[in-house]
Amino acid sequence: MSGTEYEELEQLNRDYIDAVQQSDVGRFKEILAEDFRCSNPDGSILDRQGFLEQVAKPLAITGLTAEDVEIRLFSGCAIIHATTTYRDPQGEPKRGRYTDVWLKQEGVWLAVSAHVTRA
Distance between CA atoms of 59 and 70, rounded to whole angstroms? Predict the structure, then answer.
């Protein structure tokens, strides 16, 4: 794996988590592919527009962090697995997992898929 590509994907992963925590629709517009899909913990699947609408709402959880991040790089494709930790609205510690799929399109990494679970 190219060190540069790995570092770029690490930063994109951090940006994604930060954008969720900060309801940063602008950043998501930059890093999501037009055909992006997100599979939510409740089983719903959102397209890009639905995801942008969802993330625009203030997040009820706090302290969202990604841990145990594993980046797997293939030819023009990357899969990122990680654990999340956060506090629910009552301040209780919680955990979850996510898997994001990134494709390099015209030299730019874009997220094409996300799958989120909560424990």
Answer: 25
